């Protein structure tokens, strides 16, 4: 579909991609358990084992039912997050290989992260629970604040590489990584990843003040899939940052594909670490921050990148 | 072959999901049936190798339906939209109009003499399409977009219940008093 430098591998390799995504999810969950155990003074081993314990507990749990639930939409919403994350990583080149070498891979990623709008709201709606619906509304209100800065953050690497193809963007960073000269876009991108993963400060949609919000009525395997989907979105977002800002597979000694995994894991760990470090972004308050601070900042970043790109060519 | 099968499969999904909008009894289902229909159309555009246009159709339509679901639940007049509802109003007239339109368009497809292809597709279809649509009219487009934005802003300003005088006093010097303070502390 395009003349980029990466090689498209057969569809069967998608399984390898899914396994790598699963490993990243496991890493994030274990480290999050460790960080949580450390914060609450519990034992480190218990913290590290927490994702496995929790998974086993949820798999054995009896499924909760609610009155007049819209089960179809409910399950679609909760299960869709994992699918969305898997579709996101389809355009992330693993060193020299990619599963889907789309000429507009960045737009693909963007379309996938917008899917989360629908999926989160549907999860909140489906249970026929007031708390879930309020959570869904909260997420959409927050989305109005984060989505445009995130979109314009993704524009910066595309302008610099003069391509929307992810492999070409990665290859355009052989001199200096984009994160070095577009730090604002990188930080706003990371914020966007945390936001579409309903993570850390961007989790008021799951707030304890509304009894868990979107996830209030989720139980058993539904909850496991939903939580796994959030971690998978976080991991997919971290993986997409590697070709966008962190030079793709470039690095000394190790092969390219391993560098991609190492960099993705590093970004992921930063996101996991940041979970408990930042105050909650209340949707009503954050919208103004998004539109009056982040959006102009990232537009100025785009302008600078465009000037450099025009100058250089 | 595979593309042909996919095309017809997506066409069936698009039509059935579009029909489902008027069959289902829930606001959320109607909204997202419409979203599904649009996604199928977006995938059609992808099959036409208009990758950018196709993905943007999917992106915009999912986003719009997510917002529309909120507005529908908020503003639907006849019931709170949280109860079972029906998207059809004026059933007889609607049926006549829709069946008539469908018949007209279908007859057009079948009766019109389709032209044979002249020349070959451009290398970059999206670019060719953009230049065909916009090329000679770029000046108009460039003028229209700021006018549209100004119209939206003016509309919101005119519709807003509270003006800057309500916010900051008659001489516009006081600290803004908002029922809901924003995040940058104005």
Automatic annotation (TrEMBL), chain A:
It comes from the Bacteria. GO terms for molecular function: NADH dehydrogenase (quinone) (non-electrogenic) activity. This is NADH-quinone oxidoreductase subunit H. It is a multi-pass membrane protein. PANTHER family: NADH DEHYDROGENASE SUBUNIT 1 (PTHR11432), NADH-UBIQUINONE OXIDOREDUCTASE CHAIN 1 (PTHR11432:SF3). It holds the Pfam family NADHdh. The keyword Membrane applies. The chain crosses the membrane at residues 12-35, 72-94, 106-127, 139-160, 180-199, 231-250, 256-273, 285-311. Belongs to the complex I subunit 1 family. It is an enzyme of class 1 (oxidoreductase). It is found in: Cell membrane; Membrane. It comes from Janibacter alittae. Its EC number is 1.6.5.9. Keywords: Membrane, NAD, Oxidoreductase, Transmembrane, Transmembrane helix.
UniProtKB/TrEMBL annotation, chain B:
Coiled coil: none annotated. Pfam families: Oxidored_q3. The chain crosses the membrane at residues 6-24, 31-49, 55-76, 88-112, 138-160. It is found in: Cell membrane. NDH-1 shuttles electrons from NADH, via FMN and iron-sulfur (Fe-S) centers, to quinones in the respiratory chain. Couples the redox reaction to proton translocation (for every two electrons transferred, four hydrogen ions are translocated across the cytoplasmic membrane), and thus conserves the redox energy in a proton gradient. Belongs to the complex I subunit 6 family. This is NADH-quinone oxidoreductase subunit J. It comes from Janibacter alittae. The lineage of its organism: Bacteria, Bacillati, Actinomycetota, Actinomycetes, Micrococcales.
